[in-house]
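Retry 2 of 3 after timeout on previous attempt. Resubmitting structure tokens to design endpoint.
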């Protein structure tokens, strides 16, 4: 855990962030911890995760699996509540080139009618599109400038690395759902003025009273932290989720583990019945 705000973490260069992650991991090792989890925006590192894993004896997870699952689960429940069919929907993923965005793209490509990828890295986005076209059932396209496709989208996912709203909110499709998991929670301040559109903040997990972690009962935690706790409860002391093994099966696996321990994706607007 770093003494920085999420915005400050985003401004750190990867080398500086990597140094802090390794130092924190070394402290965890001295404390005899058996699992080391990255919390929040520190999870945006990609190549740095491998460097950190090589430098540390303690296993590492970046929490991306449960975070991405929470985005899918939140979106699915909101669509169910609104009696809308995800299978007929267009999904726009902002930040599809970061770890959460690409994991979400793989999951939604199995369910949606069309997935539109937007991000800063042309190479990563192109590679992801090619893989999704082979693996998923949805139509897939790339759009560098999301202003041109925002009006098409039934669901918009703002992933970790997204730092600015890239389109005119007034031009969104009527009834569109925005699932915001960005580090800076871009859409929080505009959620009350969306004229029929809906904003859900994803990436949170409700922990049951039965889990003794030294925190208040039924506390709401970031999914990345909850994933670290779940792996510890399962004694899965291994590097769980790095950027080269992003796949829907990993999301399903951590979701099953969460259910076994009574952890629930926190969507107060669409609670489980």
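Retry 2 succeeded. Sequence:
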């Amino acid at each position: 855990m770093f003494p920085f705000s999420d915005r400050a973490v985003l401004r750190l260069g990867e080398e500086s962030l990597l140094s802090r992650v390794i130092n924190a991991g070394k402290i965890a090792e001295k404390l005899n911890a058996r699992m080391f989890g990255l919390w929040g925006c520190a999870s945006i590192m990609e190549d740095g995760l491998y460097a950190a894993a090589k430098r540390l004896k303690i296993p590492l997870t970046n929490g991306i699996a449960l975070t991405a699952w929470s985005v899918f689960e939140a979106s699915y429940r909101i669509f169910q509540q609104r009696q809308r069919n995800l299978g007929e929907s267009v999904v726009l993923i902002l930040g599809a080139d970061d770890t959460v965005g690409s994991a979400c793209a793989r999951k939604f490509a199995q369910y949606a009618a069309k997935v539109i990828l937007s991000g800063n890295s042309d190479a990563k986005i192109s590679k992801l599109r090619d893989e999704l076209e082979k693996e998923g059932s949805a139509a897939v396209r790339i759009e560098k400038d999301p202003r041109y496709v925002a009006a098409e989208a039934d669901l918009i996912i703002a992933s970790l690395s997204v730092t600015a709203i890239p389109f005119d909110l007034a031009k969104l499709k009527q009834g569109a759902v925005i699932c915001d998991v960005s580090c800076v929670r871009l859409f929080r301040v505009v959620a009350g003025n969306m004229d029929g559109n809906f904003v859900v903040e994803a990436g949170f997990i409700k922990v049951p009273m039965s889990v003794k972690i030294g925190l208040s009962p039924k506390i709401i935690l970031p999914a990345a932290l909850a994933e670290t706790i779940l792996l510890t409860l399962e004694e899965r002391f291994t590097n769980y989720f790095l950027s080269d093994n992003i796949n829907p099966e990993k999301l399903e696996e951590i979701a099953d583990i969460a259910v076994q321990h009574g952890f629930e994706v926190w969507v107060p607007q669409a609670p489980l019945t």
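Attempt log closed. The radius of gyration is 18 Å.
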